[in-house]
Amino acid sequence: MAVSESISPGMIDPAIFEQLQANIDSDAQVREELRNILQRLERQGIIFYLPRLTEGDFSSIAGRTTQSLLSRAHSVPAAELHEALTAAWPSISEQGAIIKELESVASKHPYYKYNQIWTRDMQETIMAVVFFVWLVGAGEKPQGSLPTIEEVGSLLDVPINVKDRDTFHITTEEYLHVLISLIEELVGRLLTLEKLVLKFTQARLAVNSVTLGDYERPLQISKFVKDVYAGFQILNLKNDALRRRSDGIKYNVKKIEDVKCLPRTKTQAN
Questions:
Q1: pLDDT at position 53, please?
Q2: pTM value?
Q3: For residues 187 and 228, what is the distance between their CA atoms, to the nearest angstrom?
Q4: Cα gap 115→106, rounded to integer Å
């Protein structure tokens, strides 16, 4: 006898599917609310990976976004960074305010059900904080230093690595992904550094420093990258994506060493 023949009329309550649809609609509403907040966060922090910009270029960009402001790091000498990037912190603070709104909504729902929706945007915001501190310092953190995950959480007023309750927070994995992104930003991961310098093509901080005549910054970046790489060597990473990305740090170490030698060679050639 077929299964369908064994089910008497009325055995399946239509309310079961009505409730399932209600659950689907509720979940979609939560996701839409989260995405609306994240769209504002993204707009505030957009245009980070830009080539060298002039003051005229910045005036044509709509809004004083964090990433456009931090992109000044690619076009000014180290001695002028603090003044040039002063306007970036209020923009980062605005991102922090949006994140507090995100926290308020996200903490009402299971963290691991929805965290993949916002993790990329959170990493970009954390990147803005870490990069800003490295460039100009913040509070007691001097220029060239790395803020800890606790310090990042304090600056954004967001809990970090929460284990005892289901709430919005910054994870260790997000912070580690940001450290790798910072190295990639400082070194330049898309083109070989020799080719960039020889063609005077400005794309990343270390390369631009050479073309600006700032030979100390590549040396500082070199030491910083090596120190972070040494730190990653201590870690036993369980996250596959994070482990694969961290494996690439050693190639960035080699690239930055090549750039460090270029100013000396060029100077000697002159």
A1: 34
A2: 0.76
A3: 13
A4: 8
